[in-house]
């Protein structure tokens, strides 16, 4: 039987040794427990399994975690190699025999169990745990139950190796009673943050037996008084936390720091005042004992501090690296000009000033931090009376309230000397910072800033060339509304957060010296109009090292095209939650860009320039482009964009492309889904549409051409008439008052009818004294025929047409007839639009062969029929002369 048990254990050990660390094993009779190797320990984890009986674990288990179950009884035996045990949040009742066989235990967590009375019945339960180094036993007790309890004498006297203790703070307890003078305790946590603590008074001698303590926490312990030099016995104390004892008040700080270990590193005095109440002055005497210490971190947050007295900065040690003054009500004052004296300060937190604290607990709090007057000989008095309290609730805008007039004058002088340079050559605003300050938290202060002067940030440290060492600056959630001038002095700035500031204008801002800036957050502002202006391009012109730029939620509608031409090292661009309908920025120089977020804008399609730039960047480092929430147009007009989007090299950088919404031609929105399938479907639709569009376009063009040709043919003579008239009519004839007809008649005839034409001219000119225009005689030499015809008809009162068979066949005769008709109709100089006299020579003329224009003449009243008979000719010619006379 023993052999079988040994074989099983050997098998387990061999397999544990040869397996991967991430693999789980069996280590108990409860299969739900997870068992794994962690460094050299074999851990059994049985948390939150609703166990009521303690599991049986293998003997090679070194760590057991049965936290948060319903266990009430311990096993008869623990594994022999057990070193770590967590039984927190169960129902155990402690007795002397509990850990009798766990002598190798080094870590024991037993928080939130049942402790009956003050633990006297468990006096011997730790006697065998000589190896124990870490003990946490913040038991379940109501605060009222702790007031009259005390610690059992020498409960931990056998725990000579215990270095770390987490325990409840009892009202009448002396923590030193738990130990003998021979102990190794260095870390003591009595806070009520994760337990229950009620220590109304901290007395001298309370830590007499604990001289090796380096870290002491008594936060959330409802402390109301601390005796002077209560911590003088802690000669090795480095970290002291008495925060969140909000009825203790800051007046207790001198009692705490009096004769404190000069080697102290961390002091936490956060929230020593109630949340609600009048604002306070942080007095010189509060820190008068700290000047010779080695203090590195000081917390004075959440104390309603409005102002620091003048010597406070001087009393702070030069070793101070971290100062937390957040969640107060700080206003301007002399102390602002003294911060440069904190030569070792690296981190300054003044965030969350003037917070409303509109929570249910704060609003209905019964906290009372008013000073109760006590006899002066009371050793545990805070040492101050009500008259010592200074209400500075009326301090505003740099006014120093109760300070005398002389101090006010000094304050004004410091303003002029330290902050404003000589205005003879133009003013600037200079702020002197601590020379080693690297991180500044100035967020959520509700301060209003409007930069109306150039800002210069500097130090008074010659060794650094008066340059600041600031690397991180958080100015978010304030009211920094405008930057109209350059900002100088941020030579080492790496991270700048200006988000949530209601900023509307940064057109004049230039971080001229911020060559190292890598992170810039300008989100949640109102920079739409400012960034549209090309003048704003200078704001980013010197940010050569910028890697991360956030301009989301700024109501941007457009951007200046050259805004980011200097951002060669940019890696992340966030322009989400804006109203951009296009992306006008060139990106071909952003070879290091990894992510571009354009989600939730109004972009409908990417331009050819955008597509070329993104394809180029995809071959470098670009990994993600986000267009989710944009109304992408999915019609045949944008098919080239969709086709580009379906390219395998492009699709990989567009994450969540299946979530993109497409707006179709009927304005309905559908998800893209599988981009390849979607594009294939669009391709078929657009191909059909393409043929239809091309066919329709051809038909429309053909129809328009034919219609145009028909119209041109229909009005060909009008067009020709106006063309020639515009060329030939002298300028003097264009005025109606200067125009007169040079000829009474223009004789239009065919060459075969020359004889009858000459007879007519002879009769009209010699007998009738009328002036005729005969083409062979009166046309101007050197001028082309159409121009001569147009000009002659235009200046002739009547046109006499000798119509014959040859006339109707002659091109120039018909030209004269058509031009004459156009001139008769369009000329503004003719009162009588019936300008034609037709002389019809009857030589077997056929009506069906006549031009419609000639037929129109024949139907008029001015048509004279003639024959070849000489007598008839004479009569005809006389009638022509009469018709010409009628219209004189």
Automatic annotation (TrEMBL):
GO cellular component: plasma membrane
N-terminal signal peptide: 1-19
Membrane topology label: Single-pass type I membrane protein
InterPro entries hit by this protein: Leu-rich_rpt, Leu-rich_rpt_typical-subtyp, LRR_dom_sf, TIR_dom, Toll-like_receptor, Toll_tir_struct_dom_sf
Transmembrane segments annotated in the record for this chain: 689-713
Keywords: Glycoprotein, Leucine-rich repeat, Membrane, Receptor, Repeat, Signal, Transmembrane, Transmembrane helix
Pfam families reported for this sequence: LRR_8, TIR
Compartment annotation: Membrane
Major location category of this protein: membrane
An example Gene Ontology biological process: toll-like receptor signaling pathway
Span of domain TIR: 741-875
GO molecular function: transmembrane signaling receptor activity
Record PROSITE patterns: LRR, TIR
Family recorded in the similarity comment: Belongs to the Toll-like receptor family.
Protein name, per record: Toll-like receptor 2
Organism: Crassostrea virginica
